[in-house]
Amino acid sequence: MAAAAFFDLDKTVIAKAxxxxxxxxxxxxxxxxxxxxxxxxxGQMVFRYLGADEGRMEKMRExxxxxxxxxxxxxxxxxxxxxxxxIIDPLVYTEAIELIDSHHEAGRRVYLVSASPEEIVLPLARxxxxxxxIATRARIDATGRxxxxxxxYSAGENKVAAINDEAKKFxxxxxQSFAYSDSITDLPMLEAVGHPVAVNPDRAxxxxxxxxxxxxxxxxxxxxxxxxxxxxxxxPGTVGAIGAAAALGAAYWWKSRKPVPPRWWER
Length: 267
Known about the structure:
Layout: E1 4-7, H1 18-28, H2 34-50, H3 54-68, H4 73-81, H5 84-88, H6 94-105, E2 109-117, H7 118-128, E3 132-140, E4 146-152, H8 157-170, E5 178-181, H9 187-191, E6 195-199, H10 203-212, E7 215-217, H11 244-256
Parallel strand pairs: 1-2, 1-5, 2-3, 5-6, 6-7
Antiparallel strand pairs: 3-4
């Protein structure tokens, strides 16, 4: 049987939330107004100071879907797709890319597994050279617009169900597989493999990983993609932005926030 490596995206492969990174570009194009920014600001402040749990993630997801309702998928796709290399490449952790490459050299399939929408995650997976991705799927109406509903939410146990489907499809041995994440919300994914790794873990995951004797890694070197590395060009029109309203609010807040106590790896 073969093995695989499953990487969470935000704060694990890239240094900030993917949707946060694309927010300013959507604002420049008039997709977001001040009211949406204010709502997003509050949601991101709660997330930043109180941390992530299932309840808060569910609330943020519902808000983001409502904000995006009525947006034309193709317009958003073209908008964000044009900036993929410019925005994402400087945020990629060198350590993550080196790990992805090492897993490929060992013959393992590599996945991005993210709660972010597939319109962002799938082209990002191609761009980073991984084999496939598991991500949230939003519902689209007959006119190509977001309905504000979700078909598949890629979080918690849903991530595990999707990983199990991949394991059956490709005859993967999960006991010999790896998983990487920064968040306690990914505990089910980490428990599903034989080699769980906490990367830049939040406080709850750090405690859990320490108690269980799991490997803990610190990624702190976001750079442009490694020179000379082959990168797959993303498909035109495949990047979207469900939740980008929350992203923009966070971007403004990030520039003006008060100092917060450093996380354990920053001390």
